[in-house]
Structure formats: structure tokens, C-alpha cells
Specification:
Four Helix Bundle (Hemerythrin (Met), subunit A); binds fe (ii) ion; mainly alpha; two-stranded antiparallel ribbon
């Protein structure tokens, strides 16, 4: 059921397109993850690790900016409240996730400049694993919202 109100909603088609086009982001997640898995090479390649997480941070900033510019919008006329609540929550995730990836960059930089130890790099790996898990959960919930928004449109016949 829809009611007349104002609230945040999504442009499901644009949001889906942004997700399908984010190959660079997927590649960077894989590269950082693969890099951190090579335990014996972690210290040797810490500069590469730092550069990769900085690229991941920048790509993520662009991804969130695109989603917020084209995927989310305030609908002043016709907003489904159950979608609006989820949209608000998911959009707010962007800021929290970005703070997390910035912290990973800071830690990777500290390891680089302090010629860090294996335990320091293991801490970066733990931060990254937790961050990656939260990011992928966010993406899954956003994809679910896209499906619900499409269903909602079909259900209302518009
Ligand atoms: Fe998002």
C-alpha cells in the first residue's frame, strides 16, 4: 500500500545499473583480499597493500556518490513507507562504511611508515575482513531493496 507523504526512495533501474557497472570495485576487493591472504608476502608488499586500499577507498567514494546522486532521491508525492525506511538506513550505511575504509587506509599507512610488524598487518587484515563483510551485506540489502522496488511498481501497475 502506498500513502501520500515525503520520503527517501530509490530509482531501482539506475541503482541496479550502477551496481552492474562496478567491476573496478569488485576487482579491488579481490586484489586487497588476495594480497592479505599471502601471509608470507604481507611485509614485503606493504606498499602495494597501502596503494590498493587507497584505490579501494577512492573507488568506493565514487560508487557511493553515484548511488546517492542517481539511485536515491526524495519523493515528495508517492513514497512507499516500508521502502523509504530501508532506503534511509542503507543510504546512512555509506557514511559508516566510508569511515571504516578510511581507517583501513590509515592503518595500512601506519604499517608502511613504521615498517610494521606481522601483527600490525594481521590487524589490517582483520579490519578489512570485517569491513568487506559489512560492505557485502550492505550490497545484498541494497539489491534486495531494488527487487522490492521493482515488485512494488509492478504490484501497483505503474
Ligand atoms: Fe550503497
Amino acid at each position: 500500500m502506498r500513502i501520500l507523504t515525503t520520503g527517501l526512495t530509490i530509482n531501482a533501474a539506475f541503482l541496479q545499473e550502477i551496481k552492474e557497472d562496478n567491476q573496478e570495485l569488485r576487482l579491488l576487493f579481490g586484489q586487497v583480499s588476495g594480497h592479505l591472504c599471502k601471509i608470507s608476502e604481507r611485509l614485503l608488499y606493504r606498499r602495494e597493500l597501502f596503494e590498493l586500499v587507497v584505490r579501494l577507498r577512492d573507488q568506493l567514494a565514487m560508487h557511493f556518490a553515484l548511488e546517492e546522486a542517481f539511485g536515491y532521491f526524495n519523493d515528495a508525492i508517492d513514497t512507499a513507507p516500508h521502502l523509504s525506511e530501508k532506503a534511509e538506513d542503507l543510504k546512512a550505511d555509506h557514511g559508516r562504511l566510508f569511515v571504516e575504509v578510511c581507517r583501513i587506509c590509515d592503518e595500512a599507512e601506519a604499517v608502511l611508515h613504521a615498517a610494521g610488524s606481522m601483527s600490525d598487518i594481521a590487524a589490517v587484515a582483520d579490519l578489512f575482513d570485517a569491513f568487506a563483510s559489512r560492505f557485502h551485506d550492505h550490497e545484498a540489502r541494497e539489491n534486495q531493496l531494488i527487487l522490492e522496488a521493482f515488485d512494488d511498481d509492478i504490484g501497483c501497475g505503474d
